[in-house]
Design goal:
With about 350 residues, the chain is mainly α. The chain is about 75% helix and about 0% strand. It contains 17 helices and no strands. α6 packs antiparallel against α7 and α15 runs parallel beside α17. The longest helix is centred in the last third of the chain and has 33 residues.
Length: about 350
């Protein structure tokens, strides 16, 4: 059995975005009754189980904790281990992406209630869609019927997850993956529908910001400092992802000088973040540093300046060698760069 029913009610209520008062109104009970259920001071009457499950959008089994949680965890662990092994195969990136997506298509058919694996399937199909996109890599010009079959299957299962899952994070990641599939299919209306339901940062009224303030008023500044450190890494991941998108598109599509200017501006921001110890995830930091350096090389190579591209590579190698990274991290940085050059070099000629 999973969590207690009180914890389950609380979790599913919050996933739906209901307050205790709102849930009580929907069930025609008092807020005090809901509070007692969630604190385990009392249990809902058996006649309330079906209405509760319906309002919270879950099955009665899930509400009671009989959701095969441990079984799903074993499936997720096994599937992700298999996918990791498939990704380390020597085949090219596009072939690996296709093989992983087809494998996950089978696994999601065998485990239709394992939402983590469905989410992974949608994300891996989104990755595959980049390689299949005729405007970008066009890796499967003679096999698009096979690719389209995967798209339809992943979309169908992703929509099922969105309709039945109660985990907001999984739902948002699935919307994100589906949007990318539709973008690469050139179905921009459907892509926009999934994009528009995702959270946005334009209002500046984000959970992490207010949560830090809550920690301060509840526990004081010393506890707030821990929240600041944690949020700094989250903020870096967001900013780095955005900067990577800027650099990638300017590198591949912009004029040489504007691309170099944009990538160098992005690099300065990344370095500013990294100047505070503990503010960045080193794996993400290394990847975005390599990406921005690579996109500069792409822009210079596209402009016909082979000598300039080679100089940029040499500058990057020197920068990595003189950094305070470990020898293993330095090797990772160079391997990532060399892998990108080997894969994408044909596109920049």
């Amino acid at each position: 059995m999973g969590k207690t029913i009180g914890n389950n009610i609380k979790t599913f209520r919050k996933n739906k975005g209901f307050t205790q008062e709102e849930l009580a109104d929907l069930l025609n009970v008092t807020p005090q009754a809901v509070s007692k259920w969630e604190s385990e001071n009392s249990l809902p009457d058996v006649s309330m189980l079906i209405p509760l499950a319906q309002v919270l959008g879950v099955s009665t089994d899930a509400l009671l904790g009989y959701d095969s949680l441990s079984e799903n965890e074993a499936v997720v662990s096994r599937v992700r281990e298999t996918v990791g092994g498939m990704k380390s195969n020597e085949d090219g990136r596009a072939k690996r992406a296709l093989r992983v997506a087809e494998y996950l298509s089978t696994e999601t058919a065998l485990n239709p209630g394992c939402f983590e694996v469905i989410k992974d399937y949608v994300e891996e199909t989104a990755n595959l869609s980049m390689y299949a996109d005729p405007v970008l890599e066009n890796a499967f010009p003679d096999d698009m019927e096979r690719i389209e079959k995967i798209y339809k299957d992943a979309i169908r299962k992703g929509v099922y997850l969105i309709s039945h899952c109660t985990d907001k994070v999984l739902i948002e990641k699935t919307h994100y993956g589906l949007a990318w599939i539709y973008i690469h299919e050139k179905d921009f209306d459907n892509a926009r529908e999934h994009i528009n339901v995702l959270p946005n940062i334009s209002t500046n009224r984000i959970r992490e910001k207010l949560s830090m303030e809550l920690t301060f008023f509840e526990s004081g500044f010393e506890q707030m400092k821990d929240a600041i450190d944690a949020n700094s890494m989250v903020l870096f991941d967001l900013v780095a992802s955005m900067l990577n998108t800027y650099g990638e598109n300017y590198g591949w599509w912009g004029e040489k000088e504007e691309a170099l200017e944009m990538c160098e501006w992005c690099e300065r921001i990344v370095e500013a973040f990294a100047s505070k110890k503990g503010a960045v995830d080193m794996n993400h930091y290394m990847r975005v540093k390599r990406s921005l350096a690579f996109f500069k090389m792409v822009a210079v190579k596209r402009a016909g300046d082979d000598e300039g591209a080679e100089k940029l590579y040499g500058d990057y190698a020197k920068q990595v060698a003189s950094s305070d990274l470990t020898d293993e991290q330095k090797q990772v940085m160079m391997d990532l760069m060399n892998n990108d050059i080997a894969h994408y070099g044909k596109y920049s000629e």
